[in-house]
């Protein structure tokens, strides 16, 4: 299991990365995170939404309501250009951290 | 048999009650839940298990609400007023205060000049409280508690005071409406039966006995309270409470005799009337609220989480709120119901005393808090461009202008004339200005509502161009600062009161040393009081005036919060209504396309 702090720190880059592949909705994002982490990252799924909304307010994401295949309303999120810039920054940071840790453990 | 739809409805209702979510957010969470359940069912789980695991993974409602509420407007007030009943109870305190100030006109009432304003205020307070109670059980508990208190009082009074002889009963009943004979008693009995049979059907079974017991206890206590006060000492509770406001009762040199006479007659007979009229109503409201409070608290403790029901005032509501408060204040003023503090200032001032009375009061404080609110409506975390600053200034000016306009209308409503010293205008002018104010407020609100519905945007339209973040942060800071400002003003006033009280206490102490034959005794306050309309400030006067004033300010502050939260509720539901209709339309469109 991954610690809460690390999950909290990685949530935003994770969401940005997942949305890089195209727009998506909350449940699918949560599912993908579980699939990618093979169950290592346990979220309280409801907490995903306040994060998404905050990111939207900060201009990293934009959202639209659309009718899903079963006629229900669903909110789809996608990246903005600012979101892409931030993702690039975060990616650089995480790669740097990863490299540093790998190097440290390799010695 | 497990019913998924019923579970979803229940979950939705619980979630909505926290008031931390916008309707869209609940829709989103609901869709999430449905998807999770559908997937689990498709994989072979039973609907019940699927629901349980899906809702567990989504998270408990209260922590979720807390998380969602973080991004809302009012975290500070959200913690202060966790839910509406607290605001409701405070509203009632406000009512009590007004009642106590009303009571200073009691002698004139007893002499056949009934005043109905108190009743109107109490009824409004009560109606507001009932309307704002979240959930049917809460509303019912309130209605039952108050209803029972009302029905029990005439019966118990009859039982208790009958022991005192015909004379007292005669006086008591004549003031309580004896011309109606035994009607009150028969009405009380039938009311008691009707209310409780109605309640038994409608409310949850646990809530009713508790409410009944509390209402009965209140009534019993109030009925015997005058006798207790007689036994315990010189002053009854009611007298103590009314002392700071009872300016029409002169504490003159021969007060001792007058006081005793007044006390015996008044406590034994008048108390019945007062108690039978407003005290039970107010206390029953509080007690019924208390039950709900306890109920909610225990429930939430059981859920091992925190009750989270925020209020979200918005800057849009500020101007008309100022107008409303201004109107209310002016109205209280015109009906001689106002805090002693303001009255003192008004009546002891010279020359411009009317101006002082009118403007150095709640209206001024309201406007000041509005100014504070707006001054603070700036984005503090980043530098603003010049254009953004100008926009802020512009919107601030609009809101202030509206607030001032409404305040002026409210004052004109009362005084009927623009000239400073001309307060003699008639009812016609007052009514005219009142109508103009009402029309202004109503049309503005309707206009805004239409705009919001059309745009589907819940943000205040006036502020929309500032950007959502700015509005949120600004409103938060603004209201916190406004509250802080009001609080500081109150602290300053309390300090002033306390220092005066201490000085007068010292003087009294000095006097008692100089004149050892006149030992220091609470009674001496009455004996030593001067012949003036307002006695020289004594410890009790200042302390009670101070308390009275603080309770007024505090209650007024919370009243603002309550009103804002009520508005938010209306806005929230209107918005939801249109969203749901829109969603239904979309669904129909989709179905039509599929067909």
Report on this model:
The complex is a heterodimer of chains A (107) and B (595). The relative contact order of chain A is 0.16. Chain A is of the alpha+beta class and 107 residues long. Chain A has helices at residues 4-20, 26-37, 48-57, 81-106, and strands at 24-25, 61-67, 73-79. In chain A, a hairpin with a 5-residue loop joins β2 (61-67) and β3. Chain A starts with a helix and ends with a helix. In chain A, 61% of the residues lie in helices and 15% in strands. The longest helix of chain A has 26 residues, at 81-106. Chain A has one domain: Orthogonal Bundle (Arc Repressor Mutant, subunit A), CATH 1.10.10. The mean pLDDT of chain A is 87. With 595 residues, chain B is mostly helical. Chain B folds into three domains: 4-70, no CATH class; 84-302, no CATH class; 312-582, no CATH class. Chain B is built from 24 helices and no strands. Chain B has helices at 4-17, 23-42, 47-58, 61-70, 75-80, 84-102, 106-110, 117-132, 136-161, 166-176, 183-202, 207-232, 237-242, 255-277, 279-302, 318-334, 340-348, 353-359, 362-375, 386-415, 427-455, 468-514, 523-527, 539-594. In chain B, α16 runs parallel beside α20 (386-415). About 57% of the residues of chain B have low confidence. Chain A binds chain B through residues 25-27, 30, 44-47, 49-50, 53-54, 57-58, 65, 67-68, 71-75, and chain B through 24-25, 27-29, 31-32, 34-36, 57-59, 63-64, 67-68, 70-71, 468-469, 472, 583, 586-587, 589-591.
């Amino acid at each position: 299991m991954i610690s809460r702090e690390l999950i909290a720190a990685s949530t935003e880059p994770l969401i940005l990365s997942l949305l890089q592949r195209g727009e998506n909705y909350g449940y699918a994002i949560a599912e993908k995170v579980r699939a990618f982490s093979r169950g290592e990252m346990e979220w309280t799924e409801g907490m995903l939404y306040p994060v998404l909304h905050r990111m939207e307010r900060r201009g990293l994401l934009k959202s639209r309501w659309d009718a899903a295949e079963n006629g229900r309303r669903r909110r789809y999120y996608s990246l903005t250009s600012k979101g892409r810039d931030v993702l690039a920054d975060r990616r650089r940071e995480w790669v740097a951290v990863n490299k540093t840790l790998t190097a440290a453990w390799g010695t | 048999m497990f019913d998924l739809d019923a579970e979803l409805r229940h979950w939705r209702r619980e979630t909505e009650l926290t008031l931390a979510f916008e309707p869209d957010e609940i829709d989103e969470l609901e869709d999430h839940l449905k998807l999770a359940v559908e997937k689990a069912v498709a994989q072979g789980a039973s609907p019940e298990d699927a629901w349980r695991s899906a809702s567990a993974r989504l998270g408990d409602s209260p922590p979720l609400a807390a998380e969602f509420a973080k991004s809302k407007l009012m975290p500070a007030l959200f913690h202060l007023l966790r839910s509406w009943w607290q605001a409701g109870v405070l509203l009632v305190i406000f009512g009590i205060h007004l009642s106590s100030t009303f009571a200073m006109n009691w002698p004139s009432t007893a002499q056949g000049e009934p005043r109905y304003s108190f009743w109107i205020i109490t009824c409004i307070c009560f109606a507001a409280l009932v309307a704002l109670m979240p959930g049917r059980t809460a509303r019912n508990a309130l209605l039952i508690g108050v209803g029972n208190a009302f029905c029990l009082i005439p019966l118990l009074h009859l039982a208790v005071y009958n022991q005192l002889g015909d004379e007292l009963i005669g006086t008591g009943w004549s003031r309580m409406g004896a011309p109606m004979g035994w009607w009150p008693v028969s009405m009380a009995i039938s009311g008691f039966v009707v209310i409780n049979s109605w309640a038994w059907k409608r409310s949850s079974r646990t809530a009713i006995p508790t409410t009944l017991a509390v209402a009965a206890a209140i009534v019993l206590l109030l009925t015997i309270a005058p006798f207790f006060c007689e036994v315990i000492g010189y002053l009854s509770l009611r007298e103590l409470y009314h002392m700071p406001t009872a300016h029409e009762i002169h504490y003159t040199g021969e007060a001792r005799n007058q006081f005793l006479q007044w006390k015996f007659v008044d406590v034994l007979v008048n108390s019945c009337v007062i108690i039978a009229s407003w005290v039970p109503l107010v206390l029953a409201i509080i007690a019924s609220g208390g039950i709900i409070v306890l109920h909610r608290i225990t429930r939430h403790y059981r859920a091992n989480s925190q009750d989270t029901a925020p209020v979200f005032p918005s800057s849009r509501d500020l101007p008309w709120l100022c107008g409303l408060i201004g109107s209310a204040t002016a109205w209280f003023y015109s009906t001689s119901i106002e805090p002693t503090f303001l009255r003192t200032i008004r009546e002891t001032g010279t020359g411009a005393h009317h101006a002082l009375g009118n403007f150095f009061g709640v209206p001024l404080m309201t406007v000041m808090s509005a100014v504070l609110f707006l001054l603070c409506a700036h984005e503090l975390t980043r530098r603003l461009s010049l254009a953004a600053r100008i926009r802020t200034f512009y919107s601030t000016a609009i809101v202030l202008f509206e607030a001032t306009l409404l305040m002026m209308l409210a004052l004109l409503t009362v005084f009927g004339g623009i000239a400073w010293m001309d307060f003699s205008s008639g009812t016609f002018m007052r009514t005219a200005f009142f109508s103009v104010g009402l029309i202004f407020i109503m049309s503005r609100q309707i206009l805004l509502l239409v705009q919001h519905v059309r745009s589907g945007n819940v943000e205040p339209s006036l502020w929309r161009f500032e950007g959502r973040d700015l509005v949120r942060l600004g409103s938060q800071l603004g209201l916190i600062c406004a509250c802080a400002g009001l609080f500081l003003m109150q602290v300053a006033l309390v300090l002033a009161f306390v220092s005066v009280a201490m000085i007068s206490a010292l003087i009294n102490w000095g006097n008692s040393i100089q004149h050892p034959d006149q030992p220091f005794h609470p009674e001496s306050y009455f004996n030593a009081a001067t012949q003036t309309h307002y006695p020289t400030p004594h410890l009790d006067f200042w302390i009670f005036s101070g308390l009275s004033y603080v309770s007024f300010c505090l209650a007024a502050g919370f009243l603002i919060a309550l009103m804002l939260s009520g508005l938010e509720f209306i806005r929230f539901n209107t918005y939801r209504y249109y969203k749901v209709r829109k969603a239904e339309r979309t669904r129909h469109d989709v179905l039509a396309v599929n067909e």
